[in-house]
Design goal:
It comes from Streptomyces filipinensis. This is Gamma-glutamylcyclotransferase. Pfam families: GGACT. It is a single chain. The chain has a single domain, classed as Hypothetical upf0131 protein ytfp (Roll), CATH 3.10.490. The radius of gyration is 14 Å and the shape is globular. The protein contains 4 helices and 6 strands; from the N terminus they run H-E-H-E-E-H-E-E-H-E. 20% of the residues lie in helices and 39% in strands. The chain has a 5-stranded mixed beta barrel. The longest helix is centred in the middle third of the chain and has 11 residues.
């Protein structure tokens, strides 16, 4: 269920980050510092979080929920940030070798329960199938809880 509508319309979407891009994690300062206007707690319903080698994967699962941050990019930084995050996640549109797929999903702001459409990097189908079969779920869907 990949949607390209936001890109075609030119509408910049915020990003939902749930792993190494969260505040205090390894990639936050490298990719997000100075490029955002807001970072706020949010959750992604309908997904589960799995421990990967050094980083997590969100996998669609109706009974799950992933915790993370909703990140809004500065207008002038949006295009460059989108490209940088695609490179970080090794995402190439329509490439069957992707580890992640960038998809538009509804996430929920933790503070007020408002749903917001955002980009999310979910495990690509072949990775998701492997994780569902033999992966290790992160209890509670929060990457930071693994510490």
């Amino acid at each position: 269920m990949i949607t390209e509508e936001p890109e075609r319309s030119g509408t910049p979407l915020p990003f939902f980050v749930y792993g190494t891009l969260r505040p205090g994690e390894a990639n936050h300062d490298l990719f997000l510092r100075g490029r955002t206007t807001a970072e706020e707690p949010a959750r992604l319903p309908g997904a589960a979080l799995y421990d990967g080698p050094g980083y997590p994967y969100a996998v669609e699962r109706p009974d799950g929920e992933v915790r993370g941050e909703l990140v809004t990019a500065r207008t002038q930084a949006y295009t460059a940030l989108l490209a940088a995050l695609d490179r970080l996640e090794e995402y190439v549109p329509d490439d069957p070798h992707n580890l992640y797929e960038r998809v538009a999903r509804n996430v929920v702001r933790t503070a007020d329960g408002t749903p917001v459409r955002a980009w999310v990097y979910l495990a690509a189908p072949r990775v998701a199938a492997r994780l569902r079969a033999e992966g290790k779920p992160i209890e509670g869907g929060d990457w930071l809880s693994r510490r």
